[in-house]
Amino acid sequence: MTSPLFTPITMRQLTLKNRIVVAPMCQYSAEDGSANDWHMLHLGSLAVAGAGLLMIEATAVEARGRITLGCLGLYSDANEAALRRVVAACRRFGNAPLGIQLAHAGRKGSATRPWEGIRALTAAEGAWQTCAPSAIPLDEGWPAPHALGAADMDALVDAFVSATRRAARLGLDLVELHCAHGYLLHEFLSPIANRRDDAYGGSLENRMRLPLRIAKAVREAWPAERPLGARITGTDWLEGGFTVEDAVQLARALKAVGCDYVCVSSGGIVGKAPIPIGPGYQLALAERVRRDGGLATRAVGLIAEPHQAAAVIASGKADMVAMARAFLDDPRWVWHAAEALGASAAMPPQYARVRADLWPGAALARPRREAAE
Questions:
Q1: What is the separation of C-alpha 115 from the centre of its chain, rounded to a whole number of angstroms?
Q2: Among 28, 75, 183, 261, the one annotated catalytic
Q3: Cα 134 from Cα 149, distance rounded (Å)
Q4: What percentage of the chain carries pLDDT values higher than 90?
């Protein structure tokens, strides 16, 4: 019997060949928001890796929506043209559908790249004015963001719609809205960052208003046959913050405006929170949202071993699993998982000679997987 991890799943008119998703991975290597040869190498390698879906990294819908100066964007003709080149290469040689995660960094923007030490940029380094639901700094030493007004929010909706139309012109298969990790849409959802006293703050209904406005507008701009999803937070892990009960309500509301799945992550609204990190530490959140939210879920967070990933699907805790660093560690994770689980995975004919049934060296190159069986 085929491992449940390697069974197909269909959302609208898109069918994924398996339940494995290459999660969006910020590369901090773009130039003025535009993809370059690094993205060609990074995404090109993963496009042939056999995953059911390859997600392009968090992509800013406006320049001030970038986390760092190196973040990818889809807010200009130059951005679109640069990404078109990368997408064309992935299409020509790859075997995975391509999705994109549209995002806005909010108060977490105008920051240094992670390997430069995480802090706010200085004016000399090219800092810009960030924005948020409320003028509350991210942390000590960070500047106060601009609190968005009505006209700002209208412009933000337009920015998401414009980026969505660019994604459609690029022929991408799926769009995902980033509503987690402490970025702008999550900031509106969380009472930790949202202290507004108007129609966009206070109650959960009000705090969901802008993310749902954007989701509805994006759904209308995105081709009806292509799936729309959202990465949401399952909890802030903080007293008085966003909770898994809130996540269930958000998932129901997203489904009502036409979203097809949610990827359930957690944390990120502040720099430090008591997160119980361990193998599959967010699975219970995804399971709860799937059970009570009424739509497909994707699990993410320290899922790295094939049997572990297969158990997530077999147990009904989630419909898909997403991995990021596991693919950085082993870009051929899907092929090796297929071997371990007695399944098959797509691979280019140029690489087929590394299959375990064709290459005696497989047992030497992958001794840990052989031992795990």
A1: 21
A2: 183
A3: 10
A4: 92
Q: Where are the domains of the chain?
A: 4-372
What is the per-residue pLDDT across 181-196, written as a single tens digit (0 to 9) for each? 999 999 999 999 999 9
Active site residue 28: no
Please state whether beta strands 146-147 and 131-132 pair in parallel, antiparallel, or not at all (unpaired). Answer: parallel
* Phi then psi dihedrals of residue 218, to 5 deg: -65, -40
Query: If you ran DSSP here, which 8-state letter would residue 68 be given?
Result: B
Nearest to 118 by CA among 184, 68, 58: 68
Beta strands at 9-11 and 14-16: parallel, antiparallel or unpaired: antiparallel
Q: Which residue has the tokens 């509350």?
A: 136
Across 283-297, b (16+ Cβ under 10 Å) vs e yields bebbbbbbeebebbb
Strand, helix or coil for residue 330:
coil
**DSSP three-state, residue 354:** helix
**pLDDT at position 273, please?**
86
Q: Which amino acid is at 119?
A: R
| Ramachandran region, residue 272 (left: φ > 0; alpha: ψ -120 to 50; beta: rest) | beta
Hey, CA dihedral for 184, 188, 191, 196, is it positive or negative? positive
Please choose, from the candidates 322, 266, 262, 315, the residue with its C-alpha nearest in 3D space to the C-alpha of residue 292.
262
Residue 147 is inside which H or E element, if any? strand 146-147
Q: What torsion, rounded to 10 degrees, do the Cα atoms 199, 220, 251, 201 define?
A: -10
Closest CA to 80 of 94, 59, 66: 59
Report d(CA 104, CA 178) in Å as an integer.
8
Q: What is the mean pLDDT of residues 315-335?
A: 96
Specify the amino acid at residue 197. Answer: D
The Cα–Cα gap between 37 and 59 comes to 17
Residue 137, pLDDT > 90, answer: yes
- Topology classification of domain 4-372: TIM Barrel (3.20.20)
Query: Which residues is 300 bridged to in the sheet?
Result: 322
